[in-house]
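Bench notes, afternoon.
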Amino acid sequence: MSVNLETPEGLPKTRKARKAATRRTLLGAASQCFAERGYVDTQIGDIAKTAGVAHGTFYVHFANKEALLEELLEQFNQGLLERLTALQADAPGGALGQGALDGRVRQVASTFLAYWSEGRDFVRAYAQKAALGTSVESLRDGINPQMVGFLTQALTVATATLALPPHRIELVTHGLLAAWMRIGLQALFNDAISLAEAEDTLVMMTVAVFRTLREPAEPAGA
């Protein structure tokens, strides 16, 4: 039998449930404020007012605006990973030939660009935050560890017969992710770039990298 945590007024009964509900409300209010005002011009008081809570309640849940944005980033990245994982689950197994590789990469690129388009307001907000200052570790390692794991696994499988060292795969992973992020930003915020053009570019670049990695290196002097 399911347990109803809601009171007749629609509020969670337990303290833990109320706290979780307030946190979700703050995250939703922040998303709305970022979309309407932008990240830079949104104040904590704006988020609290939109959420319908006292200003001090914000600090019960988040140390600052940056911490809240990082949680939204975690949710955003996880949502993309879930879509890509579902896409991978539906794909046939086995080694990919040239045509199949193109098609698989195109599916991933299309899913990525569609997801970013849906989350355009969040992408803009995080880009504004990044422009204000990002840690050296974030610049080095990226802001999407979920995608790092997803792509590293794909590259490891694709190059299994070559036994590339992990650090080489890691370098390629970060290089590809940096390119995908920059092309994604162009697709969303450069009116001269269409989603179709961005998708074609992602496919062209990514397939070329996969093919290069899968081809044995020519002997020196060949």
